[in-house]
Design brief:
- The protein contains 8 helices and 6 strands.
- It folds into 2 domains: 2-96, Type I PLP-dependent aspartate aminotransferase-like (Major domain) (Aspartate Aminotransferase, domain 2, 3-Layer(aba) Sandwich), CATH 3.40.640.10; 100-186, Aspartate Aminotransferase, domain 1 (Alpha-Beta Complex), CATH 3.90.1150.10.
- The chain has 187 residues and is an alpha+beta fold.
Length: 187
């Protein structure tokens, strides 16, 4: 990021970060999000990903950048009335959910390691740094049948290969244990 910053400075450019998962990155790197943000002229933060707000994103930048963005938003009809309730959810996301991300990451690591103990599932657990786990499946695994059987038990997965699993505040360590046990019986 520092090298990118130096490059844009040398060439009179601006640098934007699509920070949809910037808090996940900060927690995984064990740094304050400011350490990431300081390299960029502007960035967005998604409040509804790991931060668990029902909706919302923030656009951050200089005062002149934000004023221009507001003007452009109004020109195309953007904006919301009575957005205070959503702002309250966003505030809770930033003040209470950031700490939850470490638990989500630990649960993802547990899931990755557990999936490696399920026949036909393979995960490179070293690649799991945040709350996303990709599991590759052997040809012998009928993921469509497994998805149907899991749905009977109230567990929803989207059948694909690889299967993408995402942990979040509504997925507990116990939920992971239940999923792993069910997968072992279905494979």
């Amino acid at each position: 990021m520092a090298e990118a910053r130096q490059f844009v400075d040398e060439h009179g450019l601006s640098l934007h970060l699509d920070g949809a998962r910037v808090y996940n990155a900060a927690v995984a790197l064990d740094v304050d999000v400011i350490e990431i943000a300081k390299h960029f002229d502007s960035m967005t933060i998604c409040l509804s990903k790991g931060l668990s707000a029902p909706i919302g994103s923030l656009l951050l930048g200089s005062k002149s950048f934000i004023e221009r963005a507001r003007r452009l938003r109004k020109m195309v009809g953007g904006g919301m009335r009575q957005a205070g309730i959503l702002a309250a959810a966003g505030k809770l996301a930033l003040t209470e959910q950031v700490a939850q991300l470490a638990t989500d990451h630990a649960n993802a690591k547990k899931l990755a390691e557990g999936l490696n103990a399920v026949a036909g599932f393979s995960v490179n657990a070293d690649f799991v740094q945040t709350n996303i786990v990709f599991a590759k499946l052997d040809e012998s695994v009928d993921i469509n049948r497994i998805a149907e059987q899991l749905a009977v038990d109230g567990i929803t997965i989207s059948p694909s290969n690889p299967v993408r699993f995402v942990t979040h505040k509504d997925v507990s360590s116990n939920d992971i244990d239940v999923l792993l046990e069910k997968l072992k019986t279905l494979v």
